Amino acid sequence: MRECVDYLQNPEVLVQEFVDAYTAVETCCDPDEQKFHVVAPDAAGERGQLLERMFAARTVPVFDTVPFEFTCLARDVVSVSGGTGQPLPRLDGLDYLGHMIDAEPVGVLGVIQHAEAATPYVLFLRLVTCLSELACSAQLAAADTDLWKGALGVEPKLDLHMILQEADAEPSQATLRQLTHDLAEAFYAGISEEWQFPEVLRNIVCLMPAPADSDEILILEWCV
User: Fold this and answer.
1) Full residue range of the structural domain in which residue 132 is found
2) Which of 27, 33, 91, 154 has its CA 20 to 30 A from that of 42?
């Protein structure tokens, strides 16, 4: 909570840390060696069961004022920080990677709330880390070839997806949930003004599981 509030009071610090990480990847990483890796999915445990339930079907419908869909292309995508692509504790990397079904090509980087990553704030930092590692042109081109199979094209855009479980009734956790939303807004506004970062980030999206009797799998909670 304290760390999240500190960033909210000084969002330029988070933005600068992000830009520094992005610049380090852009200047220091060889894209032939530093790609994302898809590891064998671990179906055991809460996280694996959640992913299987949500993404058993390839197409994922989302309820919004105007409903939309995305396809899940891969689960358990280890980021540059994950190194060799070996299974890791799910505290970094992506839980899923997808492609928006839209008029323009949009990739999806997604994480899901589970026992080992219980707070929205932790999930948001994971997404920001993965974005910094993937967004430079060489890395994104390599990922487009390997993971999206060329679907992103010459002017790729990315959405960040964060899937949360039902709202926690505990007051401090509910507060942290709202603070994370506010931090996502502040980060989005700040990074949009950074000339060093390319215009690849389209939206940061928070989703929740749809009711069992719904035709959709997920519902939109907020989008910035």
Assistant:
1) 2-223
2) 33
